Amino acid sequence: MDNIIQGISTFKGQIFPGQQQMYRRLVRDGQSPKALIIACADSRVSPEHITQAGPGELFVCRNAGNIVPPFTQQNGGVSSAIEYAVVALGVRDIVVCGHSDCGAMKGLMTPEALGKMPSVAAWLRHAAAAERIVCEAYPAGMDPKEHHRALALENVTVQLSNLRTHPSVAAALAKGELTLHGWFFEIESGELLAYDGEAARFVPFADEAGLPVAQASLTRRVAVPEYRAAPIAAE
Ligand SMILES: [Zn+2]
């Protein structure tokens, strides 16, 4: 705890005075983050650090395994964060960010290790589809390291699917006002992989090529052409 107390002291005495104007502006104008990032609670995976974002720039929701429970009638912290980000803040991008060496993904592979963590075990059931995909659709006999990496990558796409079940997300996607991203942070190399939804694969982020997206921002109504003539706000 000593390091944390020292950090608070340094922030208050040395950092905040130089940033006071910015913080005052953020209070005066309110927050308007451009993106919601749903990342793992792992202490080594800090969305603000990876993206070099400052206060007010990212709306962040973190939990074990960067999981997005599908929409249900029950209240939940992740669901509330998503709804608030989309409806109240009007974010234009949502990122689901997984990572290498993820303890939650190890837990999915070895459920017997979760005997004393019933809440974690129950939570990870939201990622069960990723485990089934790797067990049934990948080559048999993968070594545990390969299995673990495949699971963490598949989990990002499973959580993106869960994300689309939320009414606020579905509506924003249909209006062409939202883009979905799947990222994977490799802790050991600092590399960021981005999910390319069209190619259905993760590719390394490259400055010059831009960032591939999981689902692009496109107005989409399956009942077109019947309603083509009807104007909607996004057009
Ligand atoms: Zn993790």
TrEMBL record:
Keyword set includes Phosphoprotein: no
E.C. designation(s): 4.2.1.1
Position of the signal peptide: none
Any one GO MF annotation of this record: carbonate dehydratase activity
Binding note for cofactor: Binds 1 zinc ion per subunit.
SMART domains per record: Pro_CA
Catalytic reaction annotation: hydrogencarbonate + H(+) = CO2 + H2O
SUPFAM superfamilies recorded: beta-carbonic anhydrase, cab
UniProt cross-references to Pfam families, sorted A to Z: Pro_CA
Enzyme class, first EC level, given as a word: lyase
Residues noted as binding Zn(2+) in the record, renumbered to the chain: C40, D42, H99, C102
Cofactor: Zn(2+)
GO terms for biological process, alphabetical: carbon utilization
Its biological purpose: Reversible hydration of carbon dioxide.
The family this protein is said to belong to: Belongs to the beta-class carbonic anhydrase family.
Name of protein: Carbonic anhydrase
